[in-house]
Write a structure and sequence with these properties.
This protein is an alpha+beta fold and about 300 residues long. The chain folds into two domains: about 15-135, Gcn5-related N-acetyltransferase (GNAT) (Aminopeptidase, 3-Layer(aba) Sandwich), CATH 3.40.630.30; about 165-300, Aminopeptidase, CATH 3.40.630. The chain contains eight helices and 16 strands. The structure holds coenzyme A. Coenzyme A (COA) binds near residues 115, 116 and 153.
Length: about 300
C-alpha cells in the first residue's frame, strides 16, 4: 500500500480505494474560485447557524464575489487544500502594506477537525514571512472556539474585541464630507500611521481606484478623518464625532456600507453609536502575530486586520 507517512504532507490522510492519499496544499488559482465560493458559503453558514448568528457569507453569489476577488487580486496570496482531486478548503492573506491580513479561511464542513485548517494557516504565515512581513493580523468570531484556539496555538494573541455593528444612516448629509481622492492619500496615510502605527497606503489607494466609496472628512480645508466603508474597509479620524459622521454618511448609501467593525475598548465611540440607535450583530477578536504596537485614538480595523 502506498503511504504518505513522514513525507511532510501526511498529516491529514484520506483513504481511497485502499490507498492512503495525503491532503495537498497548493497555491489557489482563479480556476478554484467556484469550489472556494461553495465552501465559503457552507462553512460560514454552518458555524454561524450553530451559534444563532447571521453568516458573513449569506449567499453563494457573495461567496463567488469574494472567491473571485481573492484569487485574482495581485495583493492576495492564497492556498487550497486538495483531497483526492477535490478542493476541501482555502485560505488567503492580503499582503498590500506593512501588515499581512489573513482570511477568509474555510474548510468544507465534512473535512473539518483534520488539521487542514492548521496547515492552510501555516501556509499563509510561511508565504508572508518569505516576503518579509513581520506583522500579521486577523479577526475571528468570538463564538468560534475552534478558530480562536487554532490561531492562538499558532502564536496569535487577542489584542482587541471588536463589534460588528449595523450603522444607522445619517438623516442629513454632512457638508464637510466628500469622496476620498488620490490627492488625499498622503494626509490619510499620515493619520493612519499616527493612529494605527502602520501604513495602509496601498489598501487605501486600491479602495479609491476600485470605487469602494471611501469618504474624507475635512475641517478648515484639512483632512480630519477618512473611512473605507464596510467590513473590508477601515478608518481613522481625529475625533469620535468625525468618525461617527463618516460612518453614518457612508451608511446612507446602503449596501455593505451599513456594517462596520468597532473596537470595543473605545467605549465613547461604542456609546456614541448606541446613542444613534446602531445595533450590535456579533463580537469578534482582533488577533496579531509578530510585531505589535497598540493603536491610539479613533480608528477602525478591517475584517483582515
Ligand atoms: C475554523 C476552521 C478554519 C479550522 O479548520 P479545521 O481544519 O477544522 O481545524 P484544524 O483541525 O486544523 O485545527 C483545529 C485545532 O483547534 C483545536 N480545537 C478545536 N476546538 C477547540 C476548543 N474548543 N478548545 C481548544 N482547542 C480546540 C483542535 O484540537 C485543533 O488543534 P490540534 O491541531 O492541536 O488538534 C474550520 O473549522 C472552518 O472552516 N470553520 C468554519 C469557517 C470559519 O469559522 N472560518 C474561520 C473564520 S475566523
Amino acid at each position: 500500500m502506498l503511504t504518505a507517512a513522514n513525507n511532510g504532507l501526511a498529516r491529514s490522510p484520506t483513504h481511497f480505494s485502499g490507498i492512503t492519499m495525503p491532503v495537498e496544499i497548493i497555491p489557489a488559482r482563479p480556476a478554484h474560485a467556484s469550489d472556494i465560493a461553495r465552501i465559503l458559503f457552507h462553512a460560514f453558514g454552518k458555524i454561524s447557524a450553530e451559534h444563532g448568528f447571521p453568516s458573513d457569507v449569506d449567499s453563494l453569489e457573495l461567496g463567488g464575489m469574494i472567491a473571485q476577488l481573492v484569487t485574482t487580486r495581485p495583493d492576495f496570496t492564497g492556498f487550497v487544500a486538495i483531497d483526492n482531486g477535490h478542493v476541501i478548503g482555502s485560505n488567503f492573506i492580503m499582503l498590500a502594506d506593512e501588515v499581512g491580513g489573513i482570511g477568509p479561511i474555510t474548510i468544507d464542513p465534512a473535512h473539518q477537525g483534520r488539521q487542514v485548517g492548521r496547515r492552510l494557516m501555516q501556509a499563509v504565515i510561511d508565504a508572508a514571512r518569505a516576503k518579509g512581513f513581520q506583522r500579521l493580523g486577523l479577526l475571528q468570531d468570538s463564538f468560534n472556539t475552534r478558530s480562536l484556539s487554532l490561531y492562538a496555538s499558532l502564536g496569535f494573541t487577542v489584542r482587541e474585541p471588536a463589534a460588528l455593528i449595523d450603522i444607522v444612516p445619517a438623516e442629513d448629509i454632512d457638508p464637510g464630507i466628500r469622496p476620498l481622492t488620490a490627492d488625499d492619500l498622503d494626509a490619510a496615510d499620515a493619520l493612519c500611521v499616527r493612529l494605527q502605527k502602520f501604513s495602509r497606503r496601498n489598501e487605501t489607494r486600491a479602495a479609491i481606484d476600485g470605487g469602494f466609496g471611501p469618504l474624507a472628512k475635512l475641517r478648515n480645508g484639512k483632512l480630519c478623518g477618512y473611512l473605507i466603508p464596510g467590513i473590508f474597509g477601515h478608518a481613522n479620524a481625529e475625533s469620535i464625532a468625525d468618525l461617527v459622521a463618516l460612518l453614518r454618511n457612508a451608511a446612507a448609501h446602503g449596501g455593505s456600507a451599513t456594517k462596520s467593525l468597532i473596537p470595543l475598548r473605545n467605549g465613547d465611540l461604542f456609546r456614541a453609536l448606541l446613542t444613534a440607535r446602531c445595533r450590535v450583530v456579533k463580537v469578534m477578536n482582533q488577533m496579531t502575530l509578530g510585531d505589535y504596537t497598540p493603536p491610539t485614538g479613533t480608528w477602525l480595523p478591517s475584517i483582515e486586520y
